[in-house]
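From the methods appendix. Each design record in this collection lists the tokenized structure first, followed by the designed amino acid sequence. Records were kept in a plain field format so they could be parsed without special tools. The example shown here is representative of the layout used throughout.

RECORD:
FOLD TOKENS (140 positions):
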């Protein structure tokens, strides 16, 4: 079980690193003017999303579900876990919206400014803080 937990934590860290970096790429991509930079950002965004972010998300989700199901007798009465799962669901929506944005940039159809993406980039930080506090402190 400790191996499962360790790999869950590793995959969550990798997933969050991607969730922090991809929107930062969107910031720079939305500010780019030259074709060379735009094409480079398209490649970087696609590779990050498909090669790192998606596998990390899948592994974190599968291992997290395994851990939850395995310990369900304990977890089912823990309200903090339900709040954490709600936050994780919001993060999953954010994840797939990032995938949608990769496609928007790939098609050269972005209409949002770098300011939008700077704010958009902050959302996973809020989720991370909430999840870590819930898991470590277990406030309720």
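DESIGN:
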């Amino acid at each position: 079980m400790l191996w499962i937990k360790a790999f869950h934590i590793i995959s969550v860290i990798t997933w969050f690193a991607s969730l922090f970096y991809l929107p930062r790429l969107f910031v720079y991509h939305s500010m780019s003017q030259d074709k060379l930079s735009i094409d480079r950002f398209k490649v970087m965004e696609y590779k990050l999303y498909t090669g790192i972010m998606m596998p990390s998300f899948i592994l974190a989700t599968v291992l997290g579900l395994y851990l939850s199901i395995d310990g369900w007798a304990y977890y089912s009465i823990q309200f903090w876990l339900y709040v954490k799962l709600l936050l994780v669901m919001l993060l999953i929506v954010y994840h797939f919206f990032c995938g949608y944005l990769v496609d928007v940039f790939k098609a050269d159809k972005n209409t949002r400014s770098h300011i939008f993406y700077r704010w958009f980039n902050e959302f996973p930080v809020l989720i991370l803080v909430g999840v870590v506090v819930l898991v470590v402190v277990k406030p309720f």
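APPENDIX NOTE: DSSP finds six helices and no strands in the chain.
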